[in-house]
Specification:
Helix content is about 25%, strand content about 20%. It is α/β, with parallel strands linked by helices and about 500 residues long. Strand 14 and strand 15 form a beta hairpin. Helix 5 crosses helix 6.
Length: about 500
């Protein structure tokens, strides 16, 4: 159970207001009583990025630090590439990329401007990936961006710039360092013996505080540092949302520390005077805890009975920048975003900056398209909730076999029969995912036989269009004549103005 802590906060008018924040104990019974903040359910769109030492080789994936030593994890391509490009792993190890991670073009104000223009309501960065290199000024390691490489507190600079650009923007922190322990080491004994014989740097005691492994330290000692780093970020940067990548957080030896970290974060609400949340990826934690999260929508069903958000990379393959990066289109991202919102979810979109800190123009264009679309259609996105009818049209064409899981993917295979609904109070919105070829939209779900509101539909408005629309409603559906000229390049939103209360 939890106690109640009463905190007095000063409002903008200098009046003292009283607000209650629960005090959470480090157990699931207490933590599961935390309610997802309304601001997060309203936000719909978060933005972050994968940026770090792995952005220097920019080859194949952000897992480069592992697969350059382990040819069995994701094939031999990176392993061989490293030898051919940089030399043997003994001569040039992963740590040697740090000196070239200079972030010389990183301008946090430019990043913050791009983030604000994207329409995101919370944003941040992957503060530490599996390689363990921290992008903040940490007192718990020498392997951070303040002491090495750029010699700058990259995360801190970005957080400050975001808050300056938009004081209403919430801050996101992503942690991947649970996997750092043993991450650089292959499970193949022959490969390990090869590395030892060739004196790879991952076996050098001088770097054992970077290449963390069971041969040089106890897992318990590593976990103490894992906890300290998280609390350090919480205390120094006061994020509103924390997201953890995968790990055995509920293992017998790990769960007490996990619970301590989560309760510590929740209890910062009283200091901040605002609600926070943890994003629960693939049920890393108790299934009733936090905001549920599915990577690229993997194995997420057509319907859910809980709130959630997918994380999605802006690129089609890796999450970080690579020299052969290939992007999803603005249309694919916007269609997928609408689909998620209609089903009661949200989107955490990850960009892929270059090692020097520049965000590629292609990514800026996608984020600009997204933001411009939201300027017109945001009324039907922000602050909305799922309606009794979520979608119209087939689902299977957006669900593909990803091997171990079914993935949601929008590849430009939409048409005007793909319709998504949202609601906000008594407002009903319908989005068609493509412009109709014949100029007519037919929404079968809104036929005269369907009870929409107490007294039916009063009017239909096209978001971003000031003119009146011709429409009629009968047993076949709600038929709408579109304007002669196309409005924009992506999905199109309608406000269905009802007479009387909207039927849930």
């Amino acid at each position: 159970m939890y106690l109640i802590l009463v905190v007095f906060l000063s409002s903008c008018s200098n009046k003292i207001s009283e607000k209650e924040f629960p005090v959470y104990e480090p157990n699931w019974e207490s933590l599961n009583q935390h309610e997802i903040p309304e601001w997060l359910l309203d936000a719909k769109l978060g933005l972050y990025g994968h940026w770090g030492v792995y952005s220097v080789p920019a080859f194949q994936t952000e897992w480069y630090g592992r697969i350059m030593y382990d040819k069995y994890t994701r094939g031999e391509k990176a392993f061989n590439h490293h030898i051919e490009t940089y030399g043997n792993q003994a001569d040039f190890g992963y740590k040697d990329f740090i000196k070239d991670f200079k972030a010389e073009k990183f301008d946090p104000d430019v990043w913050a401007d791009i983030i604000v223009k994207s329409g995101a309501k919370y944003a941040g960065i992957t503060a530490v990936h599996h390689d363990g290199f921290c992008l903040w000024d940490s007192e718990y390691t020498r392997w951070d961006s303040k002491d090495m490489g750029p010699e700058r507190d990259l995360y801190g600079e970005l957080v400050g710039a975001i808050r300056e650009a938009d004081p209403e923007m919430k801050i996101l922190t992503c942690f991947h360092h649970y996997r750092t322990y043993g991450w650089f080491y292959s499970k193949d004994s022959a490969l390990l013996e090869q590395g030892k014989a060739e004196n790879w740097d991952i076996f050098d005691p001088e770097y054992s505080d970077f290449y963390r492994n069971p041969q040089t330290e106890l897992r318990e000692d590593f976990m103490i540092e894992w906890e300290n780093k998280i609390k350090e970020v919480i205390d120094n940067y006061q994020p509103d949302v924390i997201w953890f990548d995968g790990g055995n957080f509920r293992g017998a030896e790990n769960e007490p520390r996990t619970l301590e970290v989560l309760s510590y974060f929740y209890n910062t609400q009283s200091k901040k005077g605002s609600e926070v949340e943890v994003v629960n990826k693939k049920s890393n934690f108790h299934p009733d805890f936090g905001l549920r999260n599915f990577e690229k929508g993997g194995n997420r069903g057509v319907k859910t009975d809980f709130d959630w958000a997918d994380d999605l990379n802006i690129a089609n393959r890796a999450w970080s920048y690579t020299h052969d990066i290939n992007y999803r289109t603005s249309n694919q991202i916007i269609d997928g975003f609408i689909d998620r919102v209609s089903r009661g979810g949200g989107l955490m979109l990850s960009i892929a900056p270059m090692a020097d800190g520049a965000i590629p123009e292609e990514q800026i264009n996608i984020l600009t398209d997204l933001g411009d679309w939201l300027k017109i259609n945001g009324e039907g996105i922000y602050g909305t909730r799922r309606w009794k009818i979520e979608t119209e049209g087939p689902n299977d064409k957006f669900m593909e076999d990803g091997g171990k899981k079914i993935m949601w993917n929008f590849k430009g295979n939409t048409d005007a029969s793909d319709i998504r609904f949202t609601k906000k109070g008594n407002q009903l919105f319908a989005f068609i995912l493509d412009w109709p070829a014949d100029g007519k939209v037919v929404i079968k779900s809104l036929s005269s036989s369907e009870k929409i509101a107490e007294n039916g539909i009063h009017n239909v408005k096209l978001l971003g269009y000031d003119g009146a629309l011709n429409w009629q409603r009968d047993e076949a559906g709600l038929t709408i004549d579109m304007p002669q000229n196309k409005i924009g390049n992506y999905a199109y939103g309608f406000e269905i103005v009802t007479d009387g209360k909207l039927v849930e």
